[in-house]
Amino acid sequence: MYYKSTRDSSVNVSSAQAIAQGISVDGGLFVPSEIPSITMEDIKKLGGMDYRERAVFVFSKFLTDYSEDEITYCVEGAYNTKSFDSDNIAELAHLFDGTYMLELWHGPTCAFKDMALQILPYLLTTATKKINLEKKVVILVATSGDTGKAALEGFKDVEGTSILVFYPDNGVSAMQKKQMTTQEGSNVGVCAIKGNFDDAQNGVKAIFTNDEIKQQLDKNGFMFSSANSINWGRLSPQIVYYVSCYAQLLADGQIDEGEKINIVVPTGNFGNILAAYYAKHMGVPVNKLICASNANNVLTDFLTTGVYDRNRQFHATISPSMDILISSNLERLLYLLCGENDAQIREWFGALAQTGRYEVTESVKKALFDEFYAGCCDDEQTKATIKEYYDKFSYTCDTHTAVAVKVYEDYVKATGDTTKTVIASTASPYKFSGSVLSAIGKGTDMDEFDLVDELAQCSKLPVPDSLAALKTKSVRFDKVIDKSEMKDFVFETLGI
Question: What domains lie within the chain, and their CATH numbers?
C-alpha cells in the first residue's frame, strides 16, 4: 500500500513516510492508493476478538510496510486499561430499539480524539525509525478543543518529539482550556490565539508549507509533522472503531449478517465521518452516513447543494469542537469522488483559499447525495435534545453528541428510514458540564469543578479521574498571541 497526495497523484510514499511527514510538500493530504477490502467472513472473525486484535487486523490492511510485530507493539501500547477506563476501549450503549451510542470518550482526555491520539505517537516514532529519520519531530496542532489535549497527552515526554498546540482563546470550553493550559511534560507548548479555529488551522498549514521555515528547522535538526486529522496516522485509527462496532453488533446478535446500518457523526473537520466512509468502502455494510453540524452549517449546505462557501457568519456555540468553517478532510473525499483528479482538487481548493467558495461537478454532487445525509441544529435545539434524552432514557450526552441525536431524529422524520443506527458519541458530558446542566434545567452559577460535582449528582456517571485531578493543577501556559505571531512562537519555543 502506497500513499498519494490529493494535489499530486504522482506522489508515491510508504505509510511510514506519510505518517512521519503528516502533509505532502505540495500542501495535499495523503490518501491510500486503494481502499482495501474486508469480507463478511473477516467481520465475523473480528466479532470473536477484542478491540486490540481488531485494530491489528485493520491496521495491517493500511500500514503494509509495518510488520505485524510493529503494529502489535503500537496497538498494545495505546489501547490498554492504563489509558482507557474500559477494557472494551470503545463502548456500545443500547439507547433504545435499533439505536446505539458508540461511546468514544473512555480515554485519558474523555474525547473521541483519544482513540487516534493514543496510538499516533507509537505509529509516528515507529515510522521515524523505519525511514531512518534522525531529526527531532515537531508536532504542530491547531485545535478546536479536544484534539489539542488528546495530542498533548499522547505525545507528552515522547522521546524525539516536541508538540506545540494552538487554540482559539475564546473558542473552547472552560474544561478544555484547563486541560490544555495545565498540561504536564517537558516537550509540550500551548498557546492561545486571537481568532477562531479556522485562523489557528490556517496558521498551522501556512507554517507547514513555508519553505523558508522548513529550511530553518532543518538547519537546527527539526522537522514538522502533524497530529491533526490531516495526518493519515490520525485518520486510520478512526476507521478501526467503525469496523469494530459492526463486528460487535453482529457478535452480540443485534444485527444479522450483512444487515446494513446507518452511522451518525457530529463533525466539523470531516475526519470522523470520513473514517466511517472508508469503513463502508472496505466492506462494512452501511446504508447512510449522516453528517451532523451545529450552527456552523457549512457542511450541511455543501452536502445538500454541492456548493462549499465559508463566507458566512462564524458562530461560537456550546459544541465548540465543531465550530469550524474549513473542513480539511473533505479534500480526501473529493479526491476519491472526482476520480483522483489532482488538477481538479487544486482548482477547487485554490478557489477556497482565494474566494472562500467552490462548487463541485454534477457527478460528484450525485455521489455525495447518494452517500450522505446532512443536517444541523442550533444551541437551543441541542439543549432541548440533551433534556429530552435525560428525561426519557436517563442518558446524559454532551453537547456534540446531542447535535448528532437531533439531526438523526430529523433524518428519521424526513425519510421514515428505520435502519438500525449507530450514533458516534464523541465526548464525556463532563467536558461541557455547564452547558449540559443548563440544558437539563439545573443551576450553573458556580465554578467549573462545582459544575462537575453537580453533574455527577444528576447524571450518576462517575467523574473521570483525569478531569477531577485538574482541580489542583496549576496553569503552565497562559500566553495569548495574534495569529500573525504563530511562527515566532514556534521558533521561540524550539529555541531557534
Answer: 91-113+233-462 (3.40.50.1100)
